[in-house]
Amino acid sequence: MSKKKTGHQFGKVGVLFGGRSAEREVSIMSGNGVLKALKSHGVDAYLFDTRERSLAELAAEKFDRVFIALHGRYGEDGTLQGALEQLGIPYTGPGVMASAIAMDKVMTKRIWQSMGLPTPRFIVLDSHSATREELRQVPDVLGLPLMLKAPHEGSTIGISKVVGYSDMSEGFALCAKFDEKVLAEEFVTGRELTVPVLGAGRNARALPIVEIRAPEGNYDYQHKYFTDDTKYLCPAPLDEALTQRIQSLAVQAFNALGCEGWARVDFMLRSSDNEPFLLEINTSPGMTGHSLVPMAAKADGVSYEDLCVEILKSASLDLKPSTDWKPD
Length: 328
Hints:
- The chain is of the alpha+beta class.
- Helices cover 34% and strands 22% of the residues.
- β1, α1 and β2 form a beta-alpha-beta unit.
């Protein structure tokens, strides 16, 4: 892809970043990286912080398309996508419905379950009304250890590992700070994998698998973005048949939610029998120096800059603007 000649086809481009979710800090890093990459290809691109500026200002900028580099609520959850549909501005990543569902770990798992896709067993608890007795029963059903998660957060925010009955109350209280519901999930012991997917429908394709090896298995917010202690293996050291199976599952999981453009699907590979389990899907993944989609793309021979252009090229609207409707 020749640089300085690809940018003109996109017109004026907004890189939406920052925002007001708990992942703002990461989004700022992603947005700056994407802006630099697009400009290196001659794209007329500008940063737009959705926390600091209004939708009216977004409309006034008259962007021809936008690259969504926001993570978490108000950027990855369908709300912004709906506003962009109203404004008629094509955007990167999945549409309104897919974004909203994928942001909700519980709804995502329910859809995957209904389609026969493997995901760990789970129980949903109400943050306000769950009783001490209900909390005590969760380990009896799911076993120990188990994971507690805030269903609408990302970047390992609002997650607690429970290793004993006495940990349930504290872990539940932590997650309840972030969400109305708390997802209790069976803990799968094994290898942590992630698979980026690009495209849509029949044309969706999986990139090489990344294996994540964090210190003591603790892949938390700090280890994700701010230290070099975590090891990443890409392509993951798996035999060809298992690699193809996991990549196929990633594409199925992506299509099951109606995703398009790009996303990243997270797995656990159970050590006892090499069975893969779907954990969640990220529809606006990180694009920082530590991020995994650029890492997988590089292993596939695609540079960070070219990846950004490919994602931008896929920007679209769910609803095509109608010009022929007239009131009675």
